[in-house]
Amino acid sequence: MLIAQDLVKLFPGVRALDGASLRIEPGSVHALLGENGAGKSTLIKILTGVYRPDGGTLSVGGVEVHLDSPQAASRAGVGVVHQERNLVPEFSIGENIVLQRLPAKGGLLDRAAIRAEAKRCLDLLDLDLDPDRRVRGLPVSQLQLIEVAKALSMDSSVLLLDEPTTASTPSEVERLFEVIRKLRDNGTAVLFVSHKLEEVYELCDTVTVLRDGVSVLESTPLADLAKQDLISAMVGRAHSAVDLPARPAVTAEPVLELSAVSTAAGHRDISLSLRPGEILGLYGLVGAGRSELAKAVLGLSAITAGELRVRGKAVNIKDVRDALRGHRIGYVPEDRKEEGLFLDQPVTKNIAVAVWDRLRTRIGGVSAKSERALAETYVERLGIRLSSTDKLVGELSGGNQQKVSLAKWLAAETEILIIDEPTVGIDVRTKAAFHELIWQLATDGLAVLLITSDLVEMVTLADRIVVMRDFHVCGEVVNDHEYEPTSHRVMGLIHQDAE
Amino acid sequence: MITLDARLRSNETTLAVVAVVGYTALVVTSGGSLLSGSAIETFFAYLAVPVLIGLAQLVALAVGQMNLSVGALGGFVACAGGVAMAQHGVPVWLAVPGALALGAFVGVLNGLLVVLTRINGFIVTLATMTILTGLQYELVGTTTVSDYSPVLRDLGRAAIFHIPVVFLVALAAAVVLAVFLRRAVPGRHLLASGGNPLAARLSGISNNRSIVVAHALSGLLIGVAAVVTLASAPGVNQSIGGDWLLASFAAPIIGGVALSGGAVSVSGTVLAAVIIRLVDVARAQFSLNPSWVNFVVGAVVLGTVVLTHRRGAA
């Protein structure tokens, strides 16, 4: 049995956990739910000894524990299957299972002991795998079951599974569930972290819901709860939304239309349209295929069926360069540091990079003067606070960096802008300023396709919200900017098959 | 179970076949002169250092690092050993362990610098390479040191059934290293850190310790290569080690060692060193331009990397 009481975890500027509690009973499966950013990962990291809590207590089997390392957690009997693959590919299945304490005799590995111990763990799960087989090349589903066996090798009384079904097919999920039920019947306390309510209902006995670092539902029997109750607990009330003035309804012809589009990335039958002056939101859980859809529009993955129309004309966009030059579509990527900006270059160069062709002087160089003039125009328009446009982008705050990556696309005179997760890792005040900026740009006539996992942000900004799930569109919600009803409708669409 | 089929298709089998076919072809085209005792002795005597420095690079690659200081450290240790014996009267029984310890010590320094500064191993060993090259020049200047320990020189020329002792030393080092990486717990930890650092960390393995151990072993093997050079080369001077760096990478890369860490093959590395040696022998036999050897080795390294990359992507 694992009991967490009032856990608090502080990061600079954020209370990631602010009184999270849960109680996992032996012989039961306990669901941990929460929106993106609710604190699930932080809680898991505390339970597995990766983070140390700043407050609260933890006990396993009735004994208070201080888990200050992953080893301490596994010694205390807490096993975990992480989201990331945690196996060594060149090692055998057996060696991976016992990696935490490789048995040795006289300084050399005891192969027989490895095999026996691995076999014991695999047998617990009814897995018929050869412990001597190398891990490289095994299918993902088996890797996951091997990780469960690895977690069991330390005689765990508590097993944490962090979103184990994200990349699995239905039959693999079924196999995993069989294994989990078997463990439950043998008395293991299982914590199951998931985004998928239907899986939670199928597998779990009790549930804890985190929101803003607090347990809003704590260790409640799932049988007492309807899907609607869980959604309400997850989304709660908006308290950080900015009130933006209403925008006039948009009537212009759509600039970007997808009709029945399927892609090589796996999208099926996607239809949506975006008008100038409109913010269209794309909402969905992680893995729903939103960023991948954006990349298909930019020509980064092939459209295999259906039609993509820009300004009414069917087009075939070859690549990002073609999207920008030929169709004036810009993309502000999610990971601005990796994909969007040159951190060790000044603001001027970052803003001008997409239009160097236009700034070219007669002898082929780029005029520093015209670069600066261009940069200054947009720095002023977007309210980027700087001592000089020669400052390196890497030295700017997160909010200003994001503004610079936006300025680059405006300087390139894009008319359609796809913005992916714009405010991840940005503090609340900068976030609000950024929201106003996007709102203003749309009001000035820019067509914005907004991808965000932050439901508050979505309800604040979007005019309409297209909801995606498993690479298809499962519905569209007209946003009346009332947080509660809109968020309920969106979550209802995502979880419509659950019960 | 590893099936016979898998064994036949393995990288090591391919390399062994290439080595045997290549050697046979050279024996035939040389009219059998390559089968004489002295020819065999020469062939293997010049193989000892390539094998040892290949293994030194292999250990660094195993943990996901690189060691650019292979040649500079080898040259420095060889010169230090030679100067100590020839000019300061250090006895050979002290100079040899001293050279090994010096190699391992610099290796530990490399490892500690990587771990403590978090600077990429490439840069750290690039820096130590430059420093060591300077130190080597400081030790010997433009002179060649050759009047040291006759015992060691004799051992360098000794052979058992036409197999030079220095080659047996290299082979013994390979066997010990193979057992260490395959069976010893620190060896497994080292490979786990190289193969998946996150998994290793979550399993209670210290990646930092693995990195230091790998660099220390790399340095120790370079120390062995330096002693072999002291024993078998006509003398040591400022040029020793100058051409070791490419060779140290070529053998493990052709031998199937992953640059990304975690996947090694000691036998593959030894066989690749044999093949590179064969190219050199062919050059001498057909009196080809020496630059062709570098050309061929470079092309083979590039080809191997492209092939492995393709296989990895498929």
Automatic annotation (TrEMBL), chain A:
It is a peripheral membrane protein. GO terms for cellular component: plasma membrane. Keywords: ATP-binding, Cell membrane, Membrane, Nucleotide-binding, Repeat, Sugar transport, Translocase, Transport. It is found in: Cell membrane. One of its GO terms (molecular function) is ATP hydrolysis activity. InterPro entries: AAA+_ATPase, ABC_carbohydrate_import_ATPase, ABC_transporter-like_ATP-bd, ABC_transporter-like_CS, P-loop_NTPase. The keyword DNA-binding does not apply. It comes from the Bacteria. This is Sugar ABC transporter ATP-binding protein. It comes from Umezawaea endophytica. The lineage of its organism: Bacteria, Bacillati, Actinomycetota, Actinomycetes, Pseudonocardiales.
UniProtKB/TrEMBL annotation, chain B:
The chain crosses the membrane at residues 12-31, 43-63, 70-86, 92-115, 122-139, 159-181, 211-233, 253-279, 291-309. It is found in: Cell membrane. Its main location: membrane. GO terms for cellular component: plasma membrane. Pfam families: BPD_transp_2. The keyword Transmembrane helix applies. It comes from the Bacteria. CDD domains: TM_PBP1_transp_AraH_like. It is a multi-pass membrane protein. InterPro entries: ABC_transp_permease. One of its GO terms (molecular function) is transmembrane transporter activity. Keywords: Cell inner membrane, Cell membrane, Membrane, Transmembrane, Transmembrane helix, Transport. PANTHER family: ABC TRANSPORTER PERMEASE PROTEIN YPHD-RELATED-RELATED, AUTOINDUCER 2 IMPORT SYSTEM PERMEASE PROTEIN LSRD. This is Autoinducer 2 import system permease protein LsrD. It comes from Umezawaea endophytica.
